[in-house]
C-alpha cells in the first residue's frame, strides 16, 4: 500500500504521524506547495509578527517517520479511477490511499491587485515580509476585523506602528461573536491605541504601482504604504474538478473524513466534515480541529477503524495580552449572557435555554472545565449558576 498526502502543513504532518503511530508500514509521500517543512501558523500573527520568533517549524523528524517530503510542488490534477495525482512538474504519483490536507488561501480584493505594500498573512514568508514592512513604515492599515485582522492590528501596535483597522460591520468580530463580544474586543484594541473604524469599507485605493493610501466609504482618507487584508480564507480546490471528489465550501466529507471518492480522505481547513454536534457539514479553521481530524484519518487509513473526533470545537486567539478562547459553535444569533467568574469575562451563548457555546477572555480555567456542558447542551441557568459560584 502507498499513501500520498497532499499539503505539508499541520494536517499533513499530523496525519503522517498518526499513520505511523497506528502501525502503517507503507511508503508515505507528502507533497507541499510551499518550500518549507511543515510549520505552525498560529504564531505568525502573534510571536512572529511581534518579532520574538522567526521559525515556527513543527518539531518532527520526517526521515525517522519515513515520509518522502516533496516541497515546492503543487498537486494540479487527480484521477481517482487510475488512483493517480498529477503534480505541477508533470510527474504523477500513484496511491492506494490519498489524504487531502491543502488548507485554504486568503481572500483578496480586486482593488488591491498588483500593488506593492498589500499583504495577507497565511505563510511564514507573508508574516516575515509584513514584519519587515511594519518595522520600516511604523504604519499599517488592516482591512477586515476577523481574528487574523485583530491579531495583526494588536501585534503591529506592539511593534510601535500607528494602526487603523477598517471593518465593514459595526465592529471587529461582530459576525463571529455578536455585538457584546465584538465590543469587548474593540475595547481591547482601542485601549492600546488601535484606531477602529467600523461600519465602513474601502471606497478607493490610491497609489501607482504601490499603495499610497485608502479612501473609506465614510470619506476618511488614510495615508499608508502598508495594508493587510484580513478578509478570511477559502480552500483552493479547483484542481479537484471532475475528479469525483465533491467540493462545496470545502471538500465534502462524512463524519470521519471520507470524501466522495474511494480511499480519498480530507482533513483540516480544506475539509467540511459532517459534525455530530452541529448536525450538518461544517468547515472549521481551527488548529485543534485539524489535529483531531488528522488523528482520525491516520488511524482509519492505517487500521480500517475510525471513531468520530472530539465533538466540541475549540479555538483561541490572542489580542494583546488577552487570550480569547471559544468552545462550541458560537452563533451571534443565539442569546448571549455575560458571566464574570473570578473577575474574568465569559460570554455564555444559548438557544432555547440550552448552552451552545462559551467565549472566555483570559478565563481558561472557567471555560475549559465546561466542555462537557457544551457537548451536552446543558441548561443555561445551570451553567450561569456554576460560573457565579
Ligand atoms: C495567521 C494565522 C493564525 C492562526 N491562529 C490560530 C489560532 O490562534 N487559533 C486557532 O485555533 N487556529 C489558528 N489558525 C488556524 C490554523 O493554523 C489552521 O486551522 C491550520 O493551520 C490548518 O491546517 P491545514 O493543514 O488544514 O492547512 P495549512 O496549515 O494551510 O497547510 C496546507 C498546506 O497545503 C499546501 N497546499 C495547498 N494546496 C496544495 C496543492 N494543490 N498541492 C500541494 N500543496 C498544497 C499549502 O501551501 C499549505 O502549505 C491560524 C491560521 C493562520 C493562517
TrEMBL record:
GO molecular function: oxidoreductase activity, acting on NAD(P)H
Cellular component terms per the entry's GO annotation: cytoplasm
Pfam families: Pyr_redox_2, Reductase_C
Domain Reductase C-terminal: 314-382
InterPro entries: FAD-oxidoreductase/Apoptosis (IPR050446), FAD/NAD-bd_sf (IPR036188), FAD/NAD-binding_dom (IPR023753), FAD/NAD-linked_Rdtase_dimer_sf (IPR016156), Reductase_C (IPR028202)
Source organism, top-level taxon: Bacteria
Cofactor field: FAD
SUPFAM superfamilies: FAD/NAD(P)-binding domain, FAD/NAD-linked reductases, dimerisation (C-terminal) domain
Occurrences of domain FAD/NAD(P)-binding (ranges): 1-294
Keywords for this protein: FAD, Flavoprotein, Oxidoreductase
Protein name: Reductase C-terminal
Native species: Jatrophihabitans endophyticus
Amino acid at each position: 500500500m502507498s499513501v500520498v498526502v497532499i499539503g505539508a502543513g499541520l494536517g499533513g504532518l499530523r496525519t503522517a504521524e498518526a499513520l505511523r503511530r497506528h502501525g502503517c508500514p507503507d511508503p508515505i509521500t507528502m507533497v507541499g506547495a510551499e518550500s518549507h517543512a511543515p510549520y505552525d501558523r498560529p504564531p505568525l500573527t502573534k510571536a512572529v509578527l511581534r518579532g520574538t520568533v522567526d521559525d515556527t517549524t513543527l518539531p518532527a523528524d520526517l526521515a525517522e517517520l519515513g515520509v518522502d517530503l516533496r516541497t515546492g510542488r503543487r498537486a494540479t490534477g487527480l484521477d481517482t479511477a487510475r488512483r493517480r495525482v498529477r503534480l505541477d512538474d508533470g510527474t504523477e504519483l500513484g496511491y492506494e490511499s490519498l489524504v487531502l490536507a491543502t488548507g485554504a488561501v486568503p481572500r483578496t480584493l480586486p482593488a488591491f491587485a498588483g500593488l506593492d505594500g498589500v499583504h495577507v498573512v497565511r505563510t511564514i514568508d507573508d508574516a516575515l515580509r509584513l514584519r519587515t514592512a511594519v518595522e520600516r513604515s511604523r504604519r499599517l492599515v488592516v482591512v477586515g476585523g476577523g481574528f487574523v485582522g485583530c491579531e495583526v492590528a494588536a501585534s503591529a501596535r506592539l511593534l510601535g506602528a500607528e494602526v487603523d483597522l477598517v471593518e465593514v460591520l459595526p465592529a471587529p468580530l461582530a459576525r463571529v461573536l455578536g455585538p457584546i463580544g465584538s465590543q469587548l474586543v474593540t475595547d481591547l484594541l482601542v485601549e492600546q491605541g488601535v484606531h477602529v473604524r467600523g461600519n465602513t469599507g474601502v471606497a478607493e485605493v490610491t497609489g501607482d504601482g504601490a499603495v499610497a493610501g485608502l479612501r473609506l466609504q465614510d470619506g476618511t482618507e488614510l495615508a499608508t504604504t502598508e495594508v493587510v487584508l484580513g478578509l478570511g480564507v477559502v480552500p483552493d480546490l479547483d484542481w479537484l474538478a471532475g475528479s469525483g471528489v465533491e467540493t462545496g465550501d470545502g471538500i465534502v466529507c462524512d463524519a470521519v473524513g471520507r470524501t466522495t471518492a474511494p480511499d480519498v480522505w480530507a482533513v483540516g481547513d480544506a475539509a467540511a466534515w459532517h459534525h455530530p454536534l452541529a448536525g450538518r457539514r461544517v468547515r472549521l479553521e481551527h488548529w485543534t480541529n485539524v489535529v483531531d481530524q488528522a488523528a482520525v484519518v491516520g488511524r482509519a487509513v492505517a487500521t480500517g477503524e475510525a471513531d468520530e473526533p472530539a465533538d466540541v470545537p475549540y479555538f483561541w486567539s490572542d489580542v494583546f495580552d488577552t487570550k480569547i478562547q471559544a468552545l462550541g459553535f458560537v452563533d451571534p444569533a443565539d442569546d448571549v449572557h455575560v458571566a464574570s467568574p473570578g473577575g474574568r469575562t465569559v460570554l455564555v451563548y444559548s438557544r432555547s435555554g440550552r448552552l451552545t457555546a462559551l467565549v472566555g477572555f483570559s478565563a481558561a480555567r472557567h471555560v475549559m472545565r465546561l466542555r462537557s456542558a457544551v457537548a451536552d447542551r446543558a441548561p443555561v441557568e445551570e451553567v450561569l449558576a456554576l460560573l457565579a459560584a
